[in-house]
């Protein structure tokens, strides 16, 4: 039975989620504050934590750092409101598995939790298998000729726009070499996918591809994760640990958000790259390395060098080749190509036959700026597919509120179909007192929501109602 901790200062949400998840076979505990959560985390180990971003005594960002510092293998999912979506996207980059937007849908939560735990289990099994393989005899891959023809793109779909074609041209050029590569792109653009694609197109493709998210590592954990440690080498080192360099030996090591590594770790990293040898913390034996290194950052590493946050000599070691990954908002021709691909994947996963996207949904997609890029698009499609009935096409009512609100802010009126629908529902008879009262209520709710940038918690406080009541009213008016 998997153990789940729910951190939310709204007692009712904790109770509802506890009942729901307990019925589905999970062992659930709750905490209404960050302090209480830390008390539980210091005593118990949880497979997954559901944490509201806004807590009375702290926030989700701080809780994420604390949770991963104590239990690096624990899966963390952030619960967020619309106004915090961009922050939640950043937290995914820093180690959270995913985020769920309010209002909460039980089936969406269950699906996300199951997917997260499944992914964590697969990664654990892959790590164990890799360690077992790497503890055996190693063979250095022989230099092979450059891979000819189209890119090998197992599990990936290629875009068709001009910037995508240029991206794949650069991948095909650098992949067959042993060059170190810097991948630069916004969060969610698919840097790990590009790194994996490079690995698939090298003579090392049958060797391990080992990713490490440096953004989720504290200074204390980074050395152990990168280089490994021996039993008893420091407090808490209860056994021997194989580092990511050893795991990747013979293959490819991908360091995501490498600029977040501390200066001390950068010094050690440079030494390992120069000498092509690694020594576990607390150990005496030097281990020979044959590892190709790919690194990624969502900020310009050269600018980090100029600001003194990243070593220039390490930068030049990495910068044998660099690739810029374009954001989704500039890849107009690829948007629906990716959306259809994710819909097909999710339909197969859910055992549904979903007919596609309605014209209104396509219009919302093309107008939205996608701050979370391809990762956000995938999450939106997965959520919408879950909420869509079998044999139907995805409609606007299955989209998260932030996509719908964009169009409302552009027109500053109820001209968009989503809001026209709500207006038609309550305005069929202006001479009817009940309809007039509902229309006035809708007008007031929308006015307040716009004033607080669609932060439903603040809107509920201004309207002098609780959040649940606001959600129910918005649902009745088809604003969810």
Please provide a written account of the structure.
This protein is of the alpha/beta class and 480 residues long. The chain has 3 domains: 120 residues, 3-Layer(aba) Sandwich (Rossmann fold), CATH 3.40.50.2300; 189 residues, 3-Layer(aba) Sandwich (Rossmann fold), CATH 3.40.50; 69 residues, no CATH class. It is 48% helix and 11% strand. The protein is built from 20 helices and 12 strands. The two termini are 34 Å apart. About 7% of the residues have low confidence.
As a whole number of angstroms, the C-alpha radius of gyration is: 25 Å
Helix content: 40-55%
Q: What is the count of structural domains?
A: 3
For the record, the CATH architecture of the largest domain stands as: 3-Layer(aba) Sandwich
Query: Any idea what the shape is?
Result: globular
Low-confidence sequence ranges: 137-149, 410-430
CATH fold group of the largest domain: Rossmann fold
Instruction: Report the span from N to C terminus.
Output: 34 Å
> What's the total number of strands?
12
Structural class: alpha/beta
Sequence of strands across the biggest β-sheet: 2-1-3-4-5
CATH class of the largest domain: Alpha Beta
């Amino acid at each position: 039975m998997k153990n789940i901790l729910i951190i939310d200062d709204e007692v009712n949400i904790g109770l509802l989620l506890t009942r729901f998840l307990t019925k589905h076979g999970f062992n659930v505990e709750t905490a209404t504050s960050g302090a209480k959560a830390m008390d539980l985390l210091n005593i118990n180990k949880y497979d997954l934590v559901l944490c509201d971003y806004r807590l009375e005594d702290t926030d989700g960002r701080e809780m994420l750092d604390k949770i991963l510092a104590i239990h690096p293998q624990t899966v963390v999912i952030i619960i967020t409101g619309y106004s915090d979506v961009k922050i939640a996207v950043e937290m995914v980059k820093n180690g959270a598995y995913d985020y769920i937007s309010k209002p909460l849908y039980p089936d969406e939560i269950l699906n996300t939790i199951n997917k997260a735990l499944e992914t964590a289990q697969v990664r654990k099994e892959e790590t164990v298998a890799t360690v077992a393989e790497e503890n055996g005899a190693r063979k250095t891959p022989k230099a092979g000729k450059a891979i000819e023809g189209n890119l090998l793109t197992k599990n990936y779909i290629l875009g068709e726009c001009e910037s995508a074609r240029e991206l794949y041209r650069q991948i095909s050029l650098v992949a067959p070499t042993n060059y170190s590569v810097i991948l630069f792109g916004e969060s969610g653009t698919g840097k790990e996918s590009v790194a994996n694609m490079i690995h698939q197109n090298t003579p090392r493709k049958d060797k391990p591809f080992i990713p490490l998210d440096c953004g989720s590592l504290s200074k204390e954990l980074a050395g152990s994760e990168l280089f490994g440690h021996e039993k008893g080498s420091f407090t808490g080192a209860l056994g021997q640990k194989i580092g990511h360099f050893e795991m990747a030996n013979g293959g490819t090591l991908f360091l995501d958000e490498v600029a977040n590594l501390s200066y001390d770790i950068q010094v050690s990293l440079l030494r390992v790259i120069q000498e092509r040898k690694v020594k576990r913390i607390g150990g005496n034996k030097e281990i020979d390395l044959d590892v190709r290194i790919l690194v990624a950052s969502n900020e310009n590493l050269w600018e980090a060098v100029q600001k003194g946050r990243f070593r220039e000599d390490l930068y030049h070691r990495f910068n044998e080749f660099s690739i810029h990954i374009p954001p989704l908002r500039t890849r107009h021709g690829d948007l629906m190509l990716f959306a259809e691909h994710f819909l097909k994947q999710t339909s197969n996963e859910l055992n549904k036959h979903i007919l596609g996207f309605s014209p209104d949904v396509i219009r919302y997609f093309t107008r939205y700026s996608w701050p979370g890029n391809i990762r956000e698009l995938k999450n939106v499609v997965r959520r919408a597919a879950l909420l869509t009935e079998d044999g139907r096409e995805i409609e606007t009512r299955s989209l998260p509120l932030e996509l719908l609100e964009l169009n409302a802010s552009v027109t500053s009126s109820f001209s968009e179909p989503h809001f026209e629908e709500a207006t038609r529902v309550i305005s069929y008879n202006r001479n009817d007192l009940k309809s007039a009262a509902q229309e006035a209520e809708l007008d007031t709710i929308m006015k307040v929501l716009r004033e607080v940038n669609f932060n439903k918690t603040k809107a509920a406080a201004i309207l002098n109602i609780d959040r649940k009541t606001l959600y129910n009213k918005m649902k009745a008016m088809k604003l969810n």
